[in-house]
Amino acid sequence: MVPSLKRVMVVTDFSATANVALPYAYALVEPGGEVHLLHLIEHEEVPNPLYAHYTPDELANPEQRKKAMAEVERHLLTLVPKAAKGKSITTVVGCVLYRGVAEGIIEEAKKRKVDAVVMGSHGRTGLSHLLMGSVAEQVLRGCGLPVLIIPRKD
Q1: How far apart (Å, rounded) are the C-alpha atoms in residues 24 and 32?
Q2: Which of 27, 130, 149, 18 is nearest to 76 (CA)?
Q3: In degrees, to the nearest 5, what angle opens at C-alpha 115 toward C-alphas 114 and 121?
Q4: Rounded mean pLDDT of the chain?
């Protein structure tokens, strides 16, 4: 049996490395499918709205958070590859907040019931990989779904 990929999630941090993965997500999805194009903001849990004014972080304010997320979603739409528009693929954009990036990607993949995850990798090696780890590696190990990792192009 050949698997059918009707719903794929691709995550970008707006870097060139991450954006290289976008066309691959559209290449994987069958016509009529969906690409969930996400930007994840690493942020502490959203505080209780009654206490948000005590936090200096603008994302703690519900109105400012909503405005910032809408702006990110508008920008995500500009990243859809032109060639993808003729493939009858629906793009679902989203900006989400999570405490940890890898945790957020895994959780969003489950919530969105995607068939696969596509992401770029900065390809850290050596000491920086040991100290910081790799988000792509954490997603690969914890996702339980096929994960296509597009390496950094120099």
Answers
A1: 16
A2: 18
A3: 85
A4: 84
